[in-house]
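Protein details
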Amino acid sequence: MTILIGDSRVASIPVRDNGDPLVSLGDLAPTAVGAGGLARRSLALRLEAANDLLPAGIGLRVVEGFRTASAQQAIIGAYSRRLREERPGLEQAELGRLVSRYVAPLDNAPHVAGAAVDLTLVDPDGAELWMGSALDATPEESDGACFTAAPGLDALAQAHRALLVATLESVGLVNYPTEWWHWSFGDRYWAYVTRAPYARYGALTETAAA
């Protein structure tokens, strides 16, 4: 059973922010816009290590790292409205559960803590490798193929996902299983998965990226 990021067991984990600063992801995030090319230093170092572990000719590309609270809320609002339109009469509790498969509640959002990245694999020319669904595709858009362990993926997508998972897990990152592209370190979800007593990173203000 998948534990979603909005689950009370995740949200109740205490945070003891260690003050690790946001740093640039540099060449790992060539297309990231503004603050999206930043992440907490310990996460950035692990991503660099993971990139070095990949087979020759394959690299990581981070699409987004740190996300401001206002940007997070905008995504929550837009996706919530879409689900309400598609499923009239949806109860609030169920809406919250469905939304959290795709975007974390603001109070518990790893991106807002600078503790998460959305990423994929690329070839030597910078072209994205086939992963079975578009990065950032919703469960509805991808017919569930966005889930990391989604059934029915072709062999190429399975191989690429297996490589991504093995490499990033080897440097201590954890995946959010409803999104193959979402990986984090030091946030509450990481703490839940690794059974750490507390999260290392909490939400940052929008000025933190200035």
Summary: The first helix runs from residue 8 to 11. The first strand starts at residue 22 and ends at 24.
